[in-house]
Specification:
Low-confidence stretches: 1-12
Order of helices and strands: HHHHHHHHHHHHH
Mean pLDDT: 87
Radius of gyration: 23 Å
Helix content: over 70%
CATH topology: ABC transporter involved in vitamin B12 uptake, BtuC
Largest sheet: none
Number of strands: 0
Structural class: mainly alpha
Oligomer: single chain
Strand content: under 5%
Shape: globular
CATH architecture: Orthogonal Bundle
Number of helices: 13
Number of domains: 1
Length: 367
């Protein structure tokens, strides 16, 4: 009789823990997907008001993104910088830092790559291309290190400094390509063409270039770094609880600076990707906001490298398909931008939902 009255705690059994982990993983998958579907549902309202069938519009969007060889190649091309910049945002987030300076770091990384590309004519591709990639990453890393030092040493919010450095980086590039780096005779605000030895080779007989493989490679490397190295453990520990990490002997300030430097390097590589794979010269406004979209890409991917790869493809598909949808059914550009904004809005809201539910439960327990 006594044995039958003993309380049981299922969550403490291996099966209970497994079920809890499974439900948590399922929630992490379903919430972002639900956010995207809800955004599409709300986005159908302005499409219908414009006199277009939402089903026809979304069908054209899918065809434009994944329904042809050209559409697939454009989706893949646009995904590479989103994945790299998204990885950068995620790495800083894992350390408890909000690096929204990805756009500026993309421009500075592109500047570093360009400086190499216009000076290595005649150098072997086996040296020129890795050098261009390395310098692009280093330039982005340097640009992010400054806000990182200001945060670690003086407690200055990285949100404010990275916003400011976005404008500084973009306008610095604009000045250089109109002045010191302008291509002779200076009719257009652009640099000279990069040496062909630095260009990414094309793949599969399409516009897809080596940059997508670079993005996937760094996704794997960042996963290994975060979850299978001492540095990754320290970065994640600081992000979870900086005070507890410092009490445990982890150097919080050093890890903050390192995290920002790696974050900036990844964003800088997104700029490198555009220079070596697409533009082949530095021009104004070469980035349509990759650094800002990368925030939503990272949030949708739960700040996990695999999730970021998948969400990067989704967002690039929206970019590639939106143009096709606009051409096919005549939707105004403003509605296309509204749809993209709704996706970002609902994705961000979905990431905050678990915290909101947890606070409600905590409030009820306190009462």
């Amino acid at each position: 009789m006594t044995e039958n009255l003993q309380p049981t705690i299922p969550d403490q059994t291996p099966t209970g823990k497994t079920n809890k982990t499974f439900m948590s993983s399922l929630t992490n998958i379903l919430l972002p997907l639900g956010a995207v579907l809800l955004a599409m549902l709300v986005g159908a309202i302005p499409i219908a008001i414009a006199g277009v069938s939402p089903l026809d519009a979304y069908r054209e969007l899918m065809i434009g993104a994944f329904g042809s060889k050209f559409g697939i190649s454009e989706t893949i091309i646009k995904s590479a910088p989103l994945i790299l910049a998204g990885l950068g945002f995620a790495f800083a987030s894992r350390c408890g830092l909000f690096n929204i300076g990805g756009e500026g770091q993309i421009y500075i990384g592109a500047l570093g790559t360009t400086l190499v590309g216009i000076t290595v004519y005649g150098l072997s591709p086996w040296l020129a291309m890795p050098l261009a990639i390395l310098v692009g990453g280093l330039f982005g890393s340097f640009w992010a290190a400054i806000p990182g030092v200001l945060k670690a040493r003086f407690g200055i919010s990285e949100v404010i400094t990275t916003i400011m450095f976005n404008y500084i980086g973009i306008n610095l590039v604009a000045y250089l390509i109109r002045g010191p780096l302008v291509e002779p005779p200076g009719y257009f605000p652009e640099t000279a063409e990069l040496a062909k030895s630095t260009w990414y080779p094309m793949l599969f007989g399409s516009r897809i270039h080596l940059g997508i493989l670079v993005a996937v490679l760094f996704s794997i490397l960042i996963y290994i770094l975060l979850w299978h190295t001492p540095l990754g453990y320290q970065v994640r520990a600081v992000g979870m609880n900086a005070a507890a990490a410092e009490y445990a002997g982890i150097k919080v300030k050093r890890n903050m600076i390192i995290a920002m430097m790696i974050s900036g390097a990844l964003a800088g590589l997104a700029g490198t990707n555009e220079m070596l794979g697409i533009q082949h010269r530095l021009i104004e406004a070469f980035s349509p906001g990759f650094g800002f979209d990368a925030i939503a890409v990272s949030l949708l991917g739960q700040n996990h490298p695999l999730g970021i790869v998948l969400s990067g493809i989704l967002f690039s598909g929206l970019r590639a398909g939106a143009g096709a949808m606009q051409r096919a059914v005549g939707i105004p550009d403003a509605i296309v931008r509204t749809l993209q904004g709704l996706v970002v809005l609902f994705v961000v809201a979905s990431t905050m939902l678990p915290q909101f539910i947890a606070r409600i439960r905590s409030f009820r327990q306190e009462k």
